[in-house]
């Protein structure tokens, strides 16, 4: 059956059709939908793991048991999973093991735009890179074949545009391969130095064998063109831009496997054109390989290593007039991202800003606490860094009476727990705040170990944050409601004055959760509003100033009442629950 699918959905379908049995991932845009989609198939066990390292190790365990397994993550998640990744290259697999990593060129939802192809080369693992949804499905199935044929995990590299665009896919039937029995094999799977020494030559020989496979693989295809004055080497979404801009004018070598790379195929292609040009996003990865094997090539001299490419950015350097498109006469005002109306984090960040504290932040939708008018975050590095960072900040002489760290509930479970253990173990007088909105918010409301539900929505063990914090040695643990500004301010002031570590849990469910029952929208009494704009200090998108008076957008307001607490003139009127 033919149907339109997102690239991520197509990958999930490919996993299903290939007989994948176990899936363990951590949500991260733009990879999340792969795991969400595959979880809909009852034949596949699927879960959210606390972090990417755990997910990859879980997938390894399933592979070791003889089942086909999968884990997915975004590019920065692969950093977290790098420890098992490099050693998995040495152990190889039993059942096929596929690892999807989704890069975010343009940083639509990321703190950097690293190029994951370098991981494939560094870890000596094959990497496939689909250019549309149909290839997403096909490559997922091929990845399992390669994994078991060459005894290796296989990386499947997605990017934002391929992951989140739709194209036509033809689906097939699920074929479950024969289960491979687990056979005890210490020299292969116990990576102590003596065994690892003997596995390294196996990895090098495997890479040579995969290079030979890449020479004739159908997924590395040459598309001929009449004009041999230029040949294009490309892959992924860059291939789509090239075809849209150039059509079939020039020969194109479209790579489906971006590591390891062929040698003779590239040399033969280059010999048949006057000039070889590499079109690729981010780093000059393919370009560097071409130079390494002695080819003259142009690439990053024409195309930037920063941000995404586009049709226009590809057209001009290749001598084609870019499509100017339609120019708007009116200037479009900027629309910076903001926390949602009723976001439980808003009151807490307002309080932190009011107290003029140094705030070490973390990764999540609460990172928007850095945006004016809240402007309450001083740093954001990576998942879990806030708790580790405040410890170092205080040990280096930072003022414990004026410094806090914030982290979300999902991020705390991901990698904040070990930072809290370090605070307790090495006795920092740190005040840290867990922003518990009862969900993984930034990536679209996935469950996590603190919510009491698993990936499929079934009830499961719920981690109690208060008990967990106390169990690692934190004696001062308290819970506040972030809608109550006075309660937040009192708690934070008191904990900052303590001479030992303390945890404040700011607990209120995300306003967008379906089960959350909101109050009626607030209204403004114009006779009482003096236009002081105090209500604007919380940066709520439901509040605006029109003709010198505050106004509330009833389609956005959830009646949380935070703005009421800022109005000295009782101009904002609350109502009962809907």
What does this structure look like?
The chain has 19 helices and 22 strands. By secondary structure, the protein is of the alpha/beta class. α1 (7-17) packs across α2 (32-38), α1 (7-17) runs parallel beside α7 (133-150) and α16 (385-395) runs parallel beside α17. The two termini are 45 Å apart. The model has no long low-confidence stretch (mean pLDDT 95).
Biggest beta sheet summary? 7 strands, mixed
Beta-strand residue percentage: 15-25%
Which range best describes the helical content: under 10%, 10-25%, 25-40%, 40-55%, 55-70% or over 70%? 25-40%
Count the helices. How many? 19
Task: List the SSEs and their pairings.
Blueprint lengths: L1 E5 H11 L4 E4 L6 H7 L6 E4 L3 H13 L4 E6 H6 L1 H10 L5 E7 L13 H7 L3 E2 L4 H18 L3 E6 H4 L2 E5 L15 H4 L3 H24 L4 E3 L7 E5 H11 L5 E4 L1 E3 L4 H8 L4 E4 L5 H8 L18 H5 L29 H10 L3 E3 L24 H11 L7 E6 H17 L5 E6 L28 H7 L4 E5 L4 H13 L4 E6 L15 E2 L18 E4 L2 E4 L19 E2 L5
Parallel strand pairs: 2-3, 2-4, 4-5, 5-7, 6-7, 10-11, 10-13, 14-15, 15-16, 16-18, 17-18
Antiparallel strand pairs: 1-8, 6-12, 9-11, 19-22, 20-21
Keywords: 4Fe-4S, Electron transport, Iron, Iron-sulfur, Metal-binding, Oxidoreductase, Transport
Protein name: Indolepyruvate oxidoreductase subunit IorA
InterPro entries: 4Fe4S_Fe-S-bd, HACL1-like, IorA, Pyrv_Fd/Flavodoxin_OxRdtase_N, THDP-binding, TPP_enzyme_TPP-bd, Transketo_C/PFOR_II
């Amino acid at each position: 059956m033919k149907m339109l699918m997102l690239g991520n959905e197509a990958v999930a379908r490919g996993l299903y059709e290939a007989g994948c049995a176990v899936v363990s991932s951590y949500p991260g845009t733009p990879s999340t939908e792969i795991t969400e989609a595959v979880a809909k198939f009852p034949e596949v066990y699927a879960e959210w793991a606390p972090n990417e390292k755990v997910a990859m190790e879980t997938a390894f365990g399933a592979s070791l048991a003889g089942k086909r397994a999968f884990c997915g993550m975004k590019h920065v998640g692969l950093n977290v999973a790098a420890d098992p990744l490099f050693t998995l290259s040495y152990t190889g697999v039993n059942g096929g093991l596929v690892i999807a990593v989704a890069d975010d060129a343009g940083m639509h939802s990321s703190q950097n735009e690293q190029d994951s192809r370098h991981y494939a080369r560094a870890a000596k693992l094959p990497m496939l890179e689909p250019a549309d949804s149909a290839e997403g499905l096909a490559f997922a199935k091929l990845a399992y074949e390669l994994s078991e044929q060459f005894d290796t995990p296989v990386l499947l590299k997605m990017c934002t545009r391929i992951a989140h665009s739709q194209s036509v896919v033809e689906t097939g039937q699920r074929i479950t391969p024969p289960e491979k029995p687990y056979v005890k094999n210490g020299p292969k799977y116990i990576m102590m130095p003596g065994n690892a020494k003997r596995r390294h030559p196996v990895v090098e020989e495997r890479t040579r064998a995969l290079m030979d496979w890449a020479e004739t693989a159908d997924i590395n295809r040459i598309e001929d063109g009449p004009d041999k004055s230029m040949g294009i080497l490309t892959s992924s979404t860059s291939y789509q831009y090239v075809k849209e801009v150039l059509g079939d004018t020039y020969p194109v070598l479209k790579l489906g496997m971006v590591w390891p790379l062929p040698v003779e195929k590239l040399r033969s292609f280059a010999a048949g054109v006057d000039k070889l040009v590499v079109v690729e996003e981010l780093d000059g990865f393919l370009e560097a390989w071409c130079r390494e094997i002695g080819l003259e090539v142009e690439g990053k001299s024409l195309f930037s290593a920063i941000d995404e490419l586009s049709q226009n950015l590809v057209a001009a350097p290749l001598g084609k007039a870019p499509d100017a498109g339609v120019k708007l006469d009116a200037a479009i005002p900027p629309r910076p991202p903001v926390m949602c109306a009723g976001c439980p984090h808003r009151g807490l960040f307002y309080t932190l800003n009011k107290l003029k504290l140094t705030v070490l932040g973390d990764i999540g939708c609460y990172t928007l606490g850095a945006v004016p008018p809240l402007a309450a975050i001083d740093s954001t590095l990576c998942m879990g860094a806030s708790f580790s960072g405040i410890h170092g900040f205080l040990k280096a002489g930072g003022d414990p009476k004026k410094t806090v760290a914030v982290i979300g509930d999902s991020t705390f479970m991901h990698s904040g727990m070990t930072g809290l253990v370090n605070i307790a173990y090495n006795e920092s007088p740190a005040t840290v705040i867990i922003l518990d909105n009862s969900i993984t918010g930034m990536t679209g409301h996935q469950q996590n170990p603190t919510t009491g539900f698993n990936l499929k929505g079934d009830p499961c063990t719920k981690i109690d944050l208060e008990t967990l914090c106390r169990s690692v040695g934190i004696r001062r643990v308290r819970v506040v409601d972030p809608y109550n500004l006075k309660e937040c301010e009192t708690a934070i002031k008191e904990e900052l004055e303590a001479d030992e570590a303390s945890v404040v849990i700011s607990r209120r469910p995300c306003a967008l959760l379906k089960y959350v029952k909101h109050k009626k929208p607030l209204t403004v009494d114009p006779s009482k509003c003096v236009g002081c704009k105090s209500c604007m200090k919380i940066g709520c998108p439901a509040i605006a100033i029109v003709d010198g008076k505050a106004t509330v957008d009833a389609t956005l307001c959830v009646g949380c009442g935070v703005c009421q607490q800022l109005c000295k003139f009782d101009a904002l009127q609350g109502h009962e629950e809907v």
